[in-house]
Design goal:
360 residues; alpha/beta; 9-stranded mixed sheet; 8 helices; 21% helix; 28% strand
């Protein structure tokens, strides 16, 4: 499909720079695709009104790490050069794939030292070698440390990699370390938050429990590729970056039981949806699954297991707007986004939510 079919005008004023407070006070647009789009304005705390006892919410429990690293490149006797790297996928205990800026300053064999600037006490504590240079600014880094020691060093020198549409308007600060993390985050490895999950609080969980709604957790480590623009003119020419995910056998069994008794699978966020769809068979059975997924969902995709999607509002011409258009229908989502913009919904990572019912 033509990428420009997924374009729309978005005012700068619609972009949320901070989350709602409290988190569950965000607005929620309910979108039903039957016939003419049925749009209803609600709040996140109304979620239980649209779910049935026995339905199951699926959350992504990945935890955001401070994956934005500022370093100094050293190459022999050459003058040191500052570089910025965003880790996006771990490939070994001592290796990460990363996006580099400016990538043209790097080549295989270069050494990079992290911990300069405000963290001068850590100078030399974390170093890496550029093992491989790929396309579109991607490099593979081999760190001198590995495993938990590397994780601890990254925590010491890294910064939270705010989405570019926020970072271009303000710097990351101490609030973001808490704001840009779900309350159920536990599996470290994400570069970006599964932002639909940011709306959930203990108060909302209590309401869900009282309503008989199940909660299950899967893990997809969201990569920086989620922020990359679609540069192709046609969706067939776009290549998704892979992300590492895991659905354990016990969770798969419980979700299959939900479907067998007529309950619905409600994914909280596009990340949990992409993982569940990667793990599902053609017949809709969810399997134990672990590994990288580069699933790219556009209109025409036949959903295998997911019935309802709770998600935030996404960028024009993004792979995520393509996904929600596949789920609820392109015309429906164009109408929903036009309504959201006209009525002041807040967009993107710190913005409001939508609750989408799948188009058959």
């Amino acid at each position: 499909m033509r990428v420009d079919l997924f374009d729309f005008d978005l005012p700068e004023s619609s972009i949320a720079l901070r989350p709602a407070s409290p988190r569950d006070s965000a607005r929620m647009l309910v979108v039903r695709p039957e016939g003419e789009p049925v749009l209803a304005d609600h709040g996140v705390l109304d979620l239980t009104s649209f779910l049935n006892p026995g339905d199951a919410l699926v959350f992504n429990d990945t935890k955001v790490i401070p994956a934005q690293l500022e370093g100094i490149r050293r190459r022999g006797e050459d003058v040191a050069t500052a570089v910025s790297l965003t880790l996006h996928m771990r490939v070994a205990s001592d290796r990460w794939k990363a996006f580099a800026r400016p990538a043209r300053r790097l080549k295989s064999g270069d050494r990079i030292q992290f911990g300069h600037g405000e963290n001068t006490c850590l100078l030399g504590a974390l170093e890496a070698t550029v093992e491989e240079k790929g396309e579109a600014g991607e490099v593979t880094l081999r760190f001198d440390l590995s495993g938990p020691a590397l994780d601890e060093a990254i925590l010491g020198v890294g910064h939270i990699p705010l989405p570019p549409y926020i970072a271009s308007k303000r710097p990351e600060d101490a609030r973001d370390r808490a704001d840009y993390q779900t309350i159920f985050a536990r599996e470290e490895g994400a570069v970006a938050a599964p932002t639909a999950g940011l709306h959930f609080t203990d108060r909302l969980f209590a309401k869900l429990d009282e309503a008989g709604i199940e909660r299950h957790f899967v893990t997809l480590h969201v990569g920086a590729g989620t922020f990359l623009p679609v540069k192709a003119d046609d969706t067939d020419d776009h290549v998704m970056h892979e992300e590492i995910g895991h659905v354990d056998a016990a969770t798969a069994e419980k979700l299959n039981a939900v479907r067998a008794r007529g309950g619905r699978i409600v994914c909280v966020g596009t990340t949990s949806l992409r993982l569940i769809e990667s793990a599902a068979t053609e017949g809709g059975e969810i399997r134990h699954w672990s590994g990288p997924t580069g699933i790219f969902i556009t209109p025409g995709y036949r959903f295998r297991a997911v019935d309802v999607l709770m998600t935030n509002f996404h960028l024009p011409k993004s792979t995520l707007f393509m996904l929600v258009s596949a789920f609820a229908g392109l015309d429906t989502m164009r109408a929903a986004y036009a309504h959201a913009i006209a009525t002041g919904y807040r967009f993107y990572s710190y913005g409001d939510a939508s609750l989408l019912f799948r188009k058959d």
